[in-house]
Every structure is written in C-alpha cells, then in structure tokens.
C-alpha cells in the first residue's frame, strides 16, 4: 500500500522528521519525509498493518504537538527502495513556529563532561533543544533559514547530522567548539577582553560589576543579586528605581532561602518554557523587589547561563552540582533603557551604555523576545507577560475568518496575526512610547508576517486616536489599502478571554483596568459589559467616576485628594497635602484638567493614597501591588457592608474610601479595601447579570490574585461559570487577541 501523510501542528524544529525516519525504518516502510508549507509531508509505502501502526504512532509517540494527521491513498507507480529525509519544499509557510527550548538533560550531561567534545561549548544543542523562534528567518525550519546558516558544519558535526541513529540527526542548530558560534567579551570602551569570557564575566560580577549578557531573545543586564551596591547601580543604569528585578538561580533549591516555592511553582520554573515565576517572598534581598509580596525568579535556560553558574560552583565535572544548593544569585533583567525595546545586538546593548562588560557572541538574534513572566494563582498558572517559550504559538479561535492584524493597545504591547481560526499572538513588544520601540514593533510585525507567510486583510486597533498603536495601525492600513476597525479597549479585554476559552454566546464581562477610551469618549476602566461573539457589546454598569487626569495615574495622592473632594471634605485636602493639595483642590473646584474616570485602577490608587501607602509611583500598578502585599500580610478581615452602593448600574465605593481615610493602620486598611471590593463586585454582578450565568474577568487589576481568586470563588458559589485569563495575560498584553476576536466575530455575524 502507498500513500501521502500530511501532518499539521507544531511539527517543525522539534525533531519530528528524524522521529518519522526512525519509525519508518523500524516498521520497514519506504518513502520520504519533508517539511512543507503547512507542516510535514510524508510519502510511505509498505504493508497495510505496518502502515496503520505507523499512523498510530505518529500521533502518540511523537516529540511534536500534532494537531491533525491526514492520510491519502495514492498509487504513484514508483517504488522507493528506502526511507529518506528530503529537502524542504519552499513556499508560503503555514506550519507553527517552534519556540526556543532550554538546554536538554542529555546536552547538559555532555556540557559538563570533560571528555566530551562539546565540554563547555556555549552553543550545545540537539534536535530537542536550542533556540528556534529567535533565530528563524522564515519557515520551513531549516538551517539555511536561521542565523546558524553562516556556521558551516565541521566533519564530526556533519556526521552526526547525517547519522539516523544520532541525537543530532538533522539538528539544524548543531555545532561544536570548532564550527559553532563563539563568545567574546568587551569592556566599557568597546575593547576586547583577553581570556575566558565566562570566567572573566563571573569574576566581574562577583566584584560588583554589571555585565550585559547576550542570551536567547536579547541581552540581559546581569549582576550579583547579593551585592546591594551592584543592584542599586544596575537600577541607575536601567533608570528603574523600584520596579522588581528578576533573579536567576541555578535551581529551585537555591531559591528556597528567599521564597516559598510550592510544587506547582516548581513545575513552572522547571518547565521547558522557563518563564520568570513570581514567588511569595520568604526572605528579603535588598533592593530586588521593594515593598511587594513577590520575587520574580527563573532558572538557567541557555547553555551560557549554565556555564556562569558552573564557573561559580568551581567548575565541577558532571551534573550533580545542579541538584545542590548554589550560592550564586544573579539579577537578570532585560537590557533595555528608558522605555526602549530589549537590545538584541551588541551595538544596541553598547549604545544603551551603563554595563561594565559585554558578553557577546556571533550568532545573530533575528527577533527580540523578552522573558515570559507568570504566577501560580492557586488553581492555574497566570501570565503577567506572555513571551519567550510561548509566543507566537497559535491560539485557536472559535471561528475562522479573514486574516486580521491587530495592533494592541500601545502599553505592554503585543500584536496578533490571524489565519483561519489560528491566532498568532506575538511576543511582548512593550510600551510604544519611544521611536525605537515603534521601530521594533514594525520589525516584529514584518518578521511574523514573513515567517508565517500571512498577508493581513483587515487591521484592528484601539479606539484611542493618540495611542501609538492606533497610529501605527492606521498608517499600515493606508499603505496596504485595507480596512481598519477600532475596538473599544475594555471590550477587547473581555473578548481576549472569550477568545482563549473559545466562548460563543452572551457573557457578562467584568473589566477592571487602568484607563481606556470609552465608546462615549469618556475615560473608562471599571466596567460591566454585556458581550457576545458577534463583536458588539453594551455597557450595563460602571464604577462611580472620580476626577482623575493623567498625573493621577502616577501620583496616588491626587486620587486621594479627588476622593476627599467627592466626599465633600475639601478642607482636608490642604490639611493633608499642604500647598500641592491646595493647587489640586482649586483644580477640582474649577474642573481644570480633571476629567472623570470610572477606572478601577484609580480606585486602588485612591485607597493607597488615603492609607498613606504611597504618594507617587515609579511604575505602573505599583500602588495596587503594595496594597495587595499589605493585605496578604495582614490576613483576611470582614468586608465593610456599608462600604459600597449600587444605583442605576453604578457601583460606588466612595463610602469605603471615606472609612479608609480615617484608618491609621495601612495593613488593616488594605485588607478591608480588598474584602469590601470583592463583596461590592459580587453584589454588583449578581444585581446586573440578569439571566446570564457566564462571567468573564479581564483587565490589568486581575493581576491581583487576592481579587481574582476571592471574587472567582464567590461567584462560582453563586452558580456562575467564571472565565479568567489563563493562556494570555489579563493586562494589555492580551488586548490584540481580543481585537482580532471582535473583528472576526463581526465579520462572521455579518456574513
Ligand atoms: Zn539537547
Ligand atoms: Zn562542529
Ligand atoms: Fe487595559
């Protein structure tokens, strides 16, 4: 019997063809396998039982994430005499893009085996591990389409590459010390530093220096996390005074002094995606994550990271040291400066300046990709940032349609490209405030379109005309002559969660967020929306609006003043805040530059301001994170029953704010705020949801686990089905997916 098998899914760059080859040999089947535009194509002939065995094991035993296997009987008349891996067929691509993989266990064994020919080779990899997405120029995934192209395989590496019994059979990233990429070290003046780059980098860090380390998706700024001076210098260099910095440790055991790690978190840390995981603090490392409840930590994933820890451990042979506690803790934070994208090449890292040394290598990073950030929320993992290891793996939409390019929101930005019912949500691009980051956005869009071979037919964007993402979207649509559709910000938040859960039909969408432009041109952010898959929505409720304005988003004391004003306690504003209070009071009285906002984020700010937790923030969400940490530390309290009111769909927490203003204990106040917020939200949803029993949580405030967990539990107890962001972040990182869903929903509804 003879036939053609077509395999779809994430089947390129994961050792699938070598797997097929070995399987065919084992079952004595003849023919060939090759990558093609949609995945992998296999021509086979052999007896019927071997063939059916073959099809079975393609799915169950394969190293790839196979979505679909199609078998078509053919009779070509040609008889193959063996089984071969053939050249890939070129053409517009359609297979999934493989993510970057951490060094596998077998490669680690070799890396630290002094008798192995790849002993301490920083670019060791095999068919199961190594970078993929960040070195890929286009599909199909072949060496010549990656930045490994310029490294010509030496004799021994070529023999492995061509030997079906070898783990490196058709490993596109294969290399050794003789033929592979090389490390180099430069000083702050750009001069090469002689000697071993790894040992010299480690020495520098141990003496308090900052080293820019080229990793998988870009440069990190690294320093010894135990050195207070080094950490504070790194904060200066990065212009990041307080926002938490991520750590890297050799293993979980080395983190246990600092953080409580539960089993689910350990699994996340050790997973093949190697995200940064937010861990509940146990000890304090000064300057790393001031005031907040969690540390972000990750484990090594590139061979180079392992080499640094290995050097610090005294260069032991073998891998048993990797199970032992290691002293070294590194800060590993994306090398970006003042809102610019993560540096991917030496020139960018160097021009950002600030580092004392630059640990570089000559394998080009073709697309920037920051580390992913996750947390375990008690029941499920939750994304803070979906990037390396996950993006741009496709999410399945509940309906197919035109190819949409959705530009996101402009903050914590991602974009989303669709084909059929597959939505490719990009890696984190970040804030689009700088020209360099907008350029990086253009590059990333161009890269994803090219790799996937998609030409967008519709553009989606936020309603806000001043968002950089909106401007980029409109410019793009005009250049291509394709339509552009605006989607309201909080509607997009809700749609993002509907999309990832494949929801069709009506839902109540609870969007608790910073601010976004409303359909009425107002400033929204605490919204109850009625939505369905047809791409429309109605606003059935919102938070009571308080005067806010742009400055209030960075200065919680202004929101506190605004709350006091709304409570009719104007005189207290100047009593509390003196001269600056008087100015704000005058502005409030004359309604100058104080647009009202129903934002839930600003409610957190007002509470933090009134409790005296923080006056001015240095990063987004800081006030809410400090409040959450205080509430967690304090422990649960009973809600303030008279702390909220609902009238004509408007949820009013002003009474709660009034009580908080007179609370002397910030810990108790923070706990009371959370308890009453949850209680008020529960009441509000129940009062307004009518016959709809599905509730979708979305928006940046749901990064707060106290809120998402408690409210979720309470609504479920009341019989609601609650849907939360799990495969995407609840913050603006998910907006582009929601925009794409809304546009395709409208299209389907109109058809
Ligand atoms: Zn490997
Ligand atoms: Zn070699
Ligand atoms: Fe938002």
Which keywords apply here?
binds zinc ion, 21% strand, 751 residues, binds fe (iii) ion, alpha/beta, 32% helix, eleven-stranded mixed sheet, seven-stranded mixed sheet
Q: Explain this structure to me?
A:
There is one protein chain. By secondary structure, the chain is α/β, with parallel strands linked by helices. The chain is built from 20 helices and 31 strands. Strands 6, 7, 8, 9, 10, 11, 12, 13, 14, 15 and 16 form an eleven-stranded mixed beta sheet that branches. A hairpin with a 4-residue loop joins strand 15 and strand 16. Helix 13 packs across helix 14. The two termini are 44 Å apart. The relative contact order is 0.09. The mean pLDDT is 94. It binds zinc ion (2 copies) and fe (iii) ion (FE). Fe (iii) ion (FE) binds next to helix 12 and strand 23. One zinc ion is lined by residues 153-154, 156-157, 175-176, 178-179.
């Amino acid at each position: 019997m003879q036939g053609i098998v077509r395999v779809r899914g994430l089947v390129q760059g994961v050792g699938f063809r070598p797997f097929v080859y070995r399987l065919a040999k084992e079952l004595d089947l003849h023919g060939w396998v090759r990558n093609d535009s949609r995945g992998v194509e296999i021509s086979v002939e052999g007896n019927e039982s071997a063939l059916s065995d073959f099809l079975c094991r393609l799915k169950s035993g394969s190293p790839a994430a196979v979505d679909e296997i199609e078998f078509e009987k053919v009779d070509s008349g040609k008889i193959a005499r063996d089984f071969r891996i053939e050249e890939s067929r070129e053409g517009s691509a359609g297979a999934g893009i493989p993510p970057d993989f951490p060094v596998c266990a077998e490669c680690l064994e070799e890396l630290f085996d002094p008798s192995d020919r790849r002993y301490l080779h920083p670019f060791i990899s095999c068919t199961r591990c190594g970078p993929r997405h960040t070195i890929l120029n286009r599909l199909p995934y072949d060496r010549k389409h990656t930045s490994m192209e310029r490294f010509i395989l030496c004799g021994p590496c070529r023999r492995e590459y061509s030997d079906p019994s070898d783990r490196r059979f058709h490993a596109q990233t294969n290399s050794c010390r003789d033929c592979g990429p090389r490390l180099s070290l430069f000083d702050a003046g750009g001069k090469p530093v002689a000697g071993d780059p790894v040992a010299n980098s480690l020495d520098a860090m141990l003496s308090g220096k900052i080293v820019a380390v080229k990793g998988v998706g870009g440069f990190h700024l690294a320093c010894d996390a135990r050195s207070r001076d080094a950490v504070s210098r790194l904060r200066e260099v990065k212009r990041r005074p307080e926002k938490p910095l991520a750590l890297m440790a050799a293993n979980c055991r080395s983190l246990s002094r600092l953080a409580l790690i539960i089993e689910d978190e350990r699994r996340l840390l050790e997973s093949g995606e190697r995200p940064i995981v937010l861990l509940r603090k146990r000890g304090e490392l000064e300057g790393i994550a001031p005031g907040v409840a969690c540390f972000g930590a990750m484990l090594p994933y590139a061979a180079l990271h392992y080499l640094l820890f290995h050097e610090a451990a005294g260069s032991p042979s073998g891998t048993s040291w990797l199970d032992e506690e290691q002293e070294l803790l590194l800060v590993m934070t994306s090398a970006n400066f003042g809102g610019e994208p993560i540096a991917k090449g030496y020139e960018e890292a160097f021009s950002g300046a600030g580092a004392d040394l630059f640990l570089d290598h000559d394998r080009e990073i073709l697309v920037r990709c920051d580390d992913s950030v996750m947390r375990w929320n008690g029941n499920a993992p939750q994304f803070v940032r979906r990037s390396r290891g996950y993006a741009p793996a496709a999410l399945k939409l509940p309906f197919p349609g035109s190819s949409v390019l959705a530009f996101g929101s402009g903050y914590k930005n991602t974009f989303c490209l669709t084909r059929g019912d597959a939505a490719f949500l990009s890696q984190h691009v970040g804030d689009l405030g700088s020209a360099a980051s907008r350029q990086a956005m253009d590059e990333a869009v161009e890269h994803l379109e090219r790799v996937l071979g998609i030409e967008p037919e519709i553009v989606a964007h936020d309603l806000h005309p001043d968002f950089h993402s909106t401007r980029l979207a409109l410019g793009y649509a005009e250049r291509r002559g394709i339509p552009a559709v605006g989607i309201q910000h909080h509607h997009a938040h809700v749609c993002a969660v509907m999309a990832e859960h494949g929801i069709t039909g009506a839902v109540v969408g609870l969007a608790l967020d910073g601010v976004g432009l409303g359909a009425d041109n107002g400033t929204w952010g605490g919204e109850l929306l009625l939505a369905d898959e047809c791409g429309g929505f109605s606003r059935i409720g919102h938070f009571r609006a308080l005067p806010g304005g742009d400055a209030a988003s960075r200065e919680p004391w202004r929101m506190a003043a605004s709350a006091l004003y709304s409570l009719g306690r104007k005189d207290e504003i100047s009593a509390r805040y003196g001269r600056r209070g008087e100015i704000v009071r005058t502005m409030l009285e004359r309604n100058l530059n104080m647009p009202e906002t129903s934002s839930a984020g600003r409610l957190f700010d007002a509470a933090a301001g009134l409790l005296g937790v923080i006056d001015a923030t240095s990063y987004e969400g800081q006030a809410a994170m400090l409040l959450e940490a205080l509430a967690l530390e304090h422990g649960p309290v009973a809600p303030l029953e008279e702390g909220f009111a609902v009238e004509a769909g408007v949820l009013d927490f002003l009474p709660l704010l009034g009580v908080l203003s007179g609370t002397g204990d910030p810990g108790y106040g923070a706990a009371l705020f959370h308890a009453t917020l949850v209680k008020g939200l529960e009441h509000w949803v129940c009062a307004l949801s009518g016959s709809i029993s599905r509730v979708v949580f979305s928006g940046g405030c749901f990064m707060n686990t106290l809120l998402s967990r408690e409210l979720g539990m309470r609504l479920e107890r009341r019989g609601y089905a609650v849907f939360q962001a799990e495969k995407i972040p609840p913050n603006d990182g998910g907006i582009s997916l929601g925009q794409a869903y809304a546009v395709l929903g409208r299209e389907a509804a109109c058809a």
